[in-house]
Amino acid sequence: MSRWYVVTLVLSLVNLFVAESLEAADTPQKNRPRSSITILVDLSKSFAPLTADDQAALRTVGRAITSLPVSTFPRPITIAWLGIGTSSPHEHPPCGPGFLYDPKMIKRNEPGVVRDKSTLIKRLDECVGIITQRSKLPGDWTDISGAIQQASDLTQGIKTNLVIILSDFVESRPHGVLAPPFRLTGHRVVLLYRAESGDKDKPAELINRIRHWQEVLTNAGAQRPVCRRPINGLSESTLITCFE
Read out DSSP for 82-143? Predict the structure, then answer.
């Protein structure tokens, strides 16, 4: 065995040990996300079932998420999908519990943790399919405020937060049930909107609703400006400008 071979082998083992040690040092922090992304999808009768354009928009969201710069959204990132329904805080998350995206050179099989970009892309794409199936059984009412409250509760203590809402932004609830109050702490918010059937004759109604929600969200503590984008023709580059 040559001397250089031995030296190379020793250096490789040292590098592996250092990498393992650094990852071990991070262990106490691995369940403490530094950023969050929460996607709220309208699963009520006024909006669901999801159209082909809705699904395309959600896949665009997925692609945009995978390309977010670390400087803007430091890792680890917790990612969750929530449904907007009759009583949103009590709705079962359509894709199950959220998961942590924390890319590492040395990958380990850990439940609820995604370690590489290819797995993240697959996970997000699978969720779009699950939500599409779930949207075929829509709820009677549209509790947008409750879903935002749930997103706020899930992200308490996290410094960098992004909330993306796909809806027609027609909030409705049973008679006598008040909208729950919610508070945001500098969350970036993106409104992805599609018109409801009644907007065909009154196109200004849709824009007025979006402006109303932009004001409500800003007053609740969302970062200015609250970004809005129509789902028709939504591109990754157009969406990413909302995250900057």
Answer: EEESTTGGGSPPTT-S-EEE---SS----TTEE-SHHHHHHHHHHHHHHHHHHTTS-BSSB-
- Smallest CA-to-CA distance from 80 within 134, 32, 127 is with 127
Condensed to tens digits (0 to 9), the pLDDT of residues 35-90 reads 999 999 999 999 999 999 999 999 999 999 999 999 999 999 999 999 999 888 88
Quote the pLDDT of residue 191: 98
At residue 162, what are phi and psi to the nearest 5 degrees? -130, 130
Question: What is the chain's mean pLDDT, rounded?
Answer: 87
CA–CA distance, 124 with 130 (Å, rounded to integer): 10
Q: Are residues 72 and 187 in the same domain?
A: yes
- Do 75 and 11 lie in one domain? The reply is no
Q: What is the number of residues in the chain?
A: 244
Domain that holds residue 17: 1-30
What gap in Å lies between CA 176 and CA 168, rounded to an integer?
Answer: 22
Residue with tokens 């040690």: 21
The confidence band for 3, taking pLDDT boundaries of 50, 70 and 90, is low
E strand segments, the chain: 35-42, 77-84, 99-101, 113-114, 160-167, 188-193, 227-230
- The one-letter amino acid at 46: S
- Residue 150 CA to residue 93 CA, distance in Å, equals 11
Task: Report how many domains make up the chain.
Answer: 2
Closest of 155, 162, 169, 161 to residue 211, by C-alpha: 169
Do 17 and 67 share a structural domain? no
User: In this structure, are 9 and 115 located in the same domain?
Assistant: no
